[in-house]
Amino acid sequence: METPLLDGSLTSGDGDYLPVRSFKEIKSMFWIETVKLWKIAAPIAFNTLCQYGINSVTNIFVGHIGNFELSAVAISLSVIGTFSFGFMLGMGSALETLCGQAFGAGQVQMLGIYMQRSWIILLVTCIFLLPIYIFASPILKLLGQEESVADYAGHFTLLVIPQLFSLAINFPASKFLQAQSKVTALAWIGFVALLLHIPLLWLLIFVFGWGTTGAAIAYDITSWGIAAGQVVYVIGWCKEGWTGLSMSAIKDIWAFVRLSLASAVMLCLEIWYMMSIIVLAGHLDNAVISVDSLSICMNFNGWEAMLFIGINAAISVRVSNELGLGRPRAAKYSIYVTVFQSFLIGILFMLIILVAKDYFAIIFTDSKDLQIAVSKLAILLAVTMVLNSVQPVIGGVAIGGGWQALVAYINIGCYYIFGLPLGFLLGYKANLGVKGLWGGMIAGTALQTLLLLIVLYRTNWNKEVEQTSERVRRWGGQEMDKETTVKGV
């Protein structure tokens, strides 16, 4: 039977937690895990908030050009941009599983090879996504968008193709750094990029008079600046994980592709689900007001989502590192602490939205009609924020543990078999409009969150530790040391 150490420590000889039973032990464990979580999450969340701020500030500047321009650019960034962002982020998220578990297992030299392998895969992915950008206008028309808005959005989409390719460098580099908890540099790079993006937008849009073309060029320049800054830091300050370009990056690449595709499907099913609201709203009466009001709400929801992407990445790092080190109880306790804190943060965001429901749209628009439309959606936005506080944490656990395929199946059932049809019925058949669309899709998210919590509750973490070494060998490539084993529990 395990007993606490004589010095009062909560950990055993291998660094894993002993069972915590008393309130004092729970409080101590909670504090330890909180510090570990936020040392990783805070810089990552700050970086993602800054990068999302680049997107949001672009919308704000365009919104003051005109409502039509805002609608077109919002559709481009929300539909085409989110589609590609989701797929690219998913393909890059395979690196979170492999780098995190390899780092925990002491295979630090493999991280640079994994990152290079991911660069290759994501650059090829960009080429496959190019037709979506080139034919954005007819695609948007096919989805039911107004012809003039679709044409304008298609033109803007062509101009942001360089930003797509920047993601192929950005995502692998950031995952490489996250796995090693070298996240302070990410925060600084994102902050500097945001600071420079604002005057760049003002210069190109208003001083040069280039309008939305200037917004697109500023978006491209800033995105590539972020990617270049991350690569410079990796090469210059990460000598242990980065040992130079290697031909090993192209060996056993198919195993890596399979995990990347599973990660992409898992995340895309989540991101595209919310994106589909914008598409369906384009078919409602008064489509411009419907799309604009939803876009503003989704923008605020996106700010919260960026915070939880940071927490998602942090819990992914914590779980994958602890599994790689053979510490199942540490992985489990870190999840409990993170879910609890994330839920409290979601409640806080909900209260803020409800208090400010009549005012927050002013940031994006001067139109009174649009401000009123946004205010009517505030309650749904508040509920979404609570649900989205827990769901990304569970997604991070899935990535850290390598459960992407399982979560993808759950997402298909909850989102596309249940939530989306329910939203369609409420929005169109029950004539509830935007509220019906969103309400039905919230029901799908709630069901998905419930099922994932049940999966977490039933997980055998000792078994997860046993499977970690095999996962890294199978998905990461056979050049990894076959004799590397993870300690049992």
Automatic annotation (TrEMBL):
Any one annotated GO CC term: membrane
Major localisation: membrane
InterPro entries with a match to the protein in the record: MATE_euk, MATE_fam
GO molecular function, one term: xenobiotic transmembrane transporter activity
Compartments, record wording: Membrane
GO BP, sorted A to Z: xenobiotic detoxification by transmembrane export across the plasma membrane
Its membrane topology: Multi-pass membrane protein
Keywords annotated in UniProt: Membrane, Transmembrane, Transmembrane helix
Membrane-crossing residue ranges in chain numbering: 72-98, 119-140, 152-173, 185-210, 216-238, 259-282, 302-321, 333-357, 377-399, 406-426, 438-457
Alphabetical list of CDD domains matching this protein: MATE_eukaryotic
Statement: the UniProt record of this protein carries the keyword Membrane: yes
The keyword DNA-binding appears for this protein: no
Highest taxon listed in the record's lineage: Eukaryota
Listed PANTHER family: MULTIDRUG RESISTANCE PROTEIN
Record-stated family: Belongs to the multi antimicrobial extrusion (MATE) (TC 2.A.66.1) family.
The protein's name: Protein DETOXIFICATION
Organism field: Manihot esculenta
